[in-house]
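User: My collaborator sent over this chain with a note saying "see what the structure looks like." That's all I know about it. Can you take a look?
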Amino acid sequence: MIAPGETIGILGGGQLGRMLAMAAARLGYRVHIYAPEADSVAAEVAAAFTCAAWEDAAAMARFAADCAVVTYEFENVPVAPLVALGEVPLRPHPRALETAQDRLTEKRFVASLGGTPAPFAAVDSSAELAAAITQIGAPGIVKTRRDGYDGKGQWRISGRIMPGEPLPELPATPLIYEGFVTFAAEFSVILARGADGEVRFWESPQNVHEHGILASSTLPAPPLVRAQVAEARALTARIAEALGYVGVLAVEFFATAQGPVFNEMAPRVHNSGHWTIEGAVTCQFANHIRAICGLPLGDTALAATGVAMRNLIGAEAHGWAALLEDPANHLHLYGKAEARPGRKMGHVTRLRLS
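Assistant: Without extra context I'll predict from the sequence alone. Here is the result:
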């Protein structure tokens, strides 16, 4: 067990790290942030901050020497430099990073556990793209295998490519082609798994994306989603077990007429779980800290009859003052200075208590 008063290291300096640091402080822990960006909103609420490149082994080793345990808030942290952490435990295990960082590896892994991902094929050339479209069909989407998130690194293919028709120019990076899934709704399963293997699930929200970015999460989810949660939870638990996972894990699904279809996993606290801060007895951030420190997990039950979380993206955050005029709104702003299009600036949550 990592006792209160010790230091938790967090790799990544964004809003998830910020909310983790705040949850850690409530349990009496210090937090040390490691991130390559100087303008870290997580560092603003942490006891210490190391601003250095991921590949800076000396800086990583100094950071590790200050920490009793290390976790991450960003799944694109490169794995190789983490050897500099030495004997300091990294939770979740880096195999979760390695799996989630490559979409092809991730889908093959989930399929091996009995999950159903969208139809997919590796694509490393225009010729392979043409073959994948013929095999899987169109419309579909080409994605970078690594580093894409919030709709980045994705290109839609609207229809089949006819013989002799020019093929799209692809970036010189490993890619994957995915067929579109006909779905009625999107939802996520979020669990916390303790160091002793105990697993607790939060209720699954219906998620709505706009322009590839999560816009809202709402509970209770509609009946079609609720009918598929048990199967989706079983797969998520198998994923966590296979990875020897410790911490909070999120898996996104499509609710379809054939059952839940795996979309992607996030080995970290997740945007679709932000509602848990006010809407659950124990939020995802507190349970992640509990899990990585070897503490008992908290109750994940709903604290309201209904919850609605809405992201404030880009210029939407300019209306924060008006949101505070409604006392039922729980407003969270992340301290980011520039409201760029597509940038998550904060979120607002409303509870239904009757």
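A starting point for your reply to your collaborator: The first strand starts at residue 7 and ends at 11.
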